[in-house]
Here is the input.
Amino acid sequence: MYGTVFLETLRQARNQVLYWSLGMGLLGVVMGSLVPLFNSQQLVELMESLPPFILAMAGIDEEMRILSTTEGVLAVGFFTRYSLIFAAYPIIMGMRVTMNEEDDGIMDVLLSLPVHRWQIIVERFLAYVLTMFVIIAAVYLGLILGTALAQVSLDLGRIAEALLASIPLFAVLLAFTMFVGTLLRNRRYALGAAAAFAVYSYMMSTVAQMIENNNIAQVVGSISVYHYFDVNSIVTQGVSWSNIGLLGALALILLGASLWFFQRRDVGL
Here is the structure.
């Protein structure tokens, strides 16, 4: 029956979603409440005195005006780190799509039920993407509560845009983990490959910001998925739909590749 795997996946993931929602939501409260501690003008002056590579490591480009707003401070202090911390979630969930059950030798039992292979791939992917929306909703509420406690104004629309724009990025990480899981069929190797993909993508994006006016830097940055989640640009200018579309297309390609490999090979026993 269609939807059975989807609903069961949501049921099994409920504890993880609760823990991640509480943790990330609390982080949002803390970061939102700390905003008044930063004097915008003094912070801008400090940032302007630092070398470019330090700014790049902190997720800040040469445009310092972003630090003069609450949203800008959150972009620098929260969102750039959030995008790396929360990357662990789609990787962990991606391992649960096929890899964990194959490694435990129980995938054949699941497939003995009236369930198609494509349902395991597609419905679990959709279920885990839905859980991401739940968690970022908790982050959103945490940021609202934190800034409310600190009695600072916040552009709720731009913050919502930044959080929603992170979903395609995490969908790519989820789909990539699923892909390497169906391809490598070894939990340790698949987890290592997925983690390396996330970490090195983040590092390549940082390196590209460190190297100014350089064609090599542009190439290095363009092959990083983090390059297409530019929270500074989102906060100042709004969402780039071309970046959203590119990440969404990449996620669908990786999802299709996962389905193709899983449909055409024997499962681990």
Observations:
- The chain has one domain: 4-263.
- The CA atoms of residues 75 and 232 lie 6 Å apart.
- The mean pLDDT is 82.
- The radius of gyration is 20 Å.
